[in-house]
Amino acid sequence: MNVSLSPQVYTTIICWLLFSIIWLWQRNKTKENVSTRTVSQKIAAFSGYVIIFSALYLPLFFTKGTVAESIIPQYDIIQNFGVLLCVCGIFTSIWSRLLLGWNWSGGVTAKKDHELIVTGPYRFVRHPIYTGFIAALIGTCLVTGGIVGIVITGLYIFGLYAKINKEEQLLADLFGDVYSDYQKRTCKLIPFLW
């Protein structure tokens, strides 16, 4: 194996399992969509998660000299920082998801009686679930270090940027000036920066 099953690796796996359990538990606790997601959209979303998580942990199953090789040195300081990012990211995503509650949607769609949530991490960033998810992905990449995971994470972040822009437009259409004011006092994704 290229990457050992260290306590740091186990910690990231536990974080992602907790994330998955919460998401599965909450999946049907939402308001009715104004427009429904198609089966192909749901399959694409699920497939995306499978690809991401497979890519992140490839270095556990392949030896050096393969495309799955770990390229980040396995120094404790790097791994511990990765674990910190992963834990904080998962915590932020779960907290944000629970605050969003019945207004959450896997796709970019309005809910009936949609509410704008501006408490908790939503006071600082408009998309804290994504902020946390990205932090957890980067943290896991630091722990496992695989080039495939790093590339997939980069592609995911790029794709997420397009999704965020669609969500911003939807929320601006739904909430008008209220959302415009909210945009002025918060960052899009990274607290205090962007």
UniProtKB/TrEMBL annotation:
InterPro entries: ICMT_MeTrfase
One annotated Gene Ontology cellular component of this protein: membrane
UniProt keyword list: Membrane, Transmembrane, Transmembrane helix
Membrane-spanning residues: 9-26, 46-63, 75-95, 129-158
GO-annotated molecular function: protein C-terminal S-isoprenylcysteine carboxyl O-methyltransferase activity
Compartments it resides in: Membrane
Top-level taxon of the source organism: Bacteria
UniProt membrane topology term: Multi-pass membrane protein
Protein's name according to its UniProt entry: Isoprenylcysteine carboxylmethyltransferase family protein
Organism: Sinomicrobium weinanense
